[in-house]
Amino acid sequence: MNYRIEKDTAGEIRVPAERLWGAQTQRSLENFTIGTERMPQEVVMALVLLKKAAAVVNHAFGTLDRVRKEAIVTACDELLAGKFPDEFPLLVWQTGSGTQSNMNVNEVLARRAMQLIDEPVHPNDHVNLSQSSNDIFPSAMHIAALSAGETALLPSLKRLEVSLQNKVEEFRDILKIGRTHLQDATPLTLGQEFSGYAAMLHTNARQLQDALDYVRELAVGGTAVGTGLNAPPGFAEAMVEKVSELTGQRFLTASNTFQGLSSHDALAGVSGALKALAANMMKIANDVRWLGSGPRCGIGELLLPANEPGSSIMPGKVNPTQAEAVTMVACQVFGNDVAVGFAASQGNFELNTFKPVIIYNVLQSIRLLGDSMNSFRERCVNGIRANRPLIAEYLQKSLMLVTALAPHLGYETAARIAKSAHENGTTLREAAVSLGCVSEEEFDRVVRPEKMIAPA
């Protein structure tokens, strides 16, 4: 391999000759050989977008000449179009401010811009002009999180909500027994049960939209500690306007840049909303796999799509694999939220230095939830069918239909009927009549499951 010699304030270092990155990127590669988790591409592209906006804004303020501005913008456009993807090799496990990833982008853009105009372009003096890693990296974190949440996660969530709502209509007339504490309870319809699932996701969508609104605030313009040193007056406002124009999304200047650098409560809030979604997805997936358990010795009220063989030793076995994948994703999201919470609490004085791990976990949670909901919808929910005969059989056997008698006979008498039926293996009707509590006609008039699914 051929090398060239690059220099920074720490001295000289060898860099592979064909690479666009420079000294600081190379130092990070050599100094942080920890794990395999690379800085998310969403963050890198957000940094590139910010550099494009900064070049335009700095030129407008008269601090960057036209030739270098156009070269930097062209280089940014190339990267945003997918060119040179291998020039961003840095890991999450680096400096907690994200400085090395910011410099990675600065160095790549500077060298590419120099190739375009054959004039010096400096990663700090030109590409990073009016910026600090301390304000530009958290701004990139917010851009990446908002984009991922709005363009990937929320559409997946809403599509799953629609699929569940379709099942509400399909199952509207199917009476079934309810279950509380894993024991038989009063009846409802299968459609009502699924309406709860759809409503959970509707609430989650609102929670996520509310949480994402807080990451619209960008810390750009705060520079090193929030004061805006070395940035011209009005730079923050101009940057936010340009970023909003470039992304088509609404961003705002940070209401307080000192908060924007030292606190990540906005992303902690997003992570909390992701955790709430994961909790509901865990519940929905678990209900689906329990209701689909069997096929002969489980609950078996739902018939789930058979996507693949389920066992390497038991022929013919089919497992609820899509539901299992969702529950594993939920566990990962729970863990990610714990990491984000701890990391967000570590804002010592003017800077939080856990930025890379915060955005890595938030973006992973967004990606996993979006992907798993798509898969669950396509390969499970859309193909769920109701096992009508078994559902009807369970309903007729349930002792909790006795609840309809309680207003007429009293709680204790109704309980005595249920206990007698259970102990003697009879139906509720037989037990109620044999105990002399009601006649057969009275029982049939009062105990009507279809009348028990709404307020009397």
UniProtKB/TrEMBL annotation:
Compartments where found: Cytoplasm
Domain of life, per lineage: Bacteria
Similarity annotation: Belongs to the class-II fumarase/aspartase family. Fumarase subfamily.
Reaction(s) catalysed by this chain's protein: (S)-malate = fumarate + H2O
Pfam families per record: FumaraseC_C, Lyase_1
Gene Ontology terms for molecular function: fumarate hydratase activity
Additional free-text comment from the UniProt record: There are 2 substrate-binding sites: the catalytic A site, and the non-catalytic B site that may play a role in the transfer of substrate or product between the active site and the solvent. Alternatively, the B site may bind allosteric effectors.
Pathway connected to this protein: Carbohydrate metabolism; tricarboxylic acid cycle; (S)-malate from fumarate: step 1/1
Purpose of the protein: Involved in the TCA cycle. Catalyzes the stereospecific interconversion of fumarate to L-malate.
Protein name as annotated: Fumarate hydratase class II
Principal subcellular localisation of the protein: cytoplasm
Cross-referenced CDD domains: Fumarase_classII
GO biological process, alphabetically ordered: fumarate metabolic process; malate metabolic process; tricarboxylic acid cycle
Active site location: 181 (proton donor/acceptor), 311
Record: residues binding substrate: 97-99, 122-125, 132-134, 180, 312, 317-319
Fumarase C C-terminal domain: residues covered: 401-453
Keyword annotations of the record: Cytoplasm, Lyase, Tricarboxylic acid cycle
Domain Fumarate lyase N-terminal, first and last residues per copy: 11-335
GO CC terms: cytoplasm
EC supergroup of this enzyme: lyase
Site location (Important for catalytic activity): 324
Oligomeric and partner information: Homotetramer.
Record-linked InterPro entries: Fum_hydII, Fumarase/histidase_N, Fumarase_C_C, Fumarate_lyase_CS, Fumarate_lyase_fam, Fumarate_lyase_N, L-Aspartase-like
EC number: 4.2.1.2
Species annotation: candidate division KSB3 bacterium
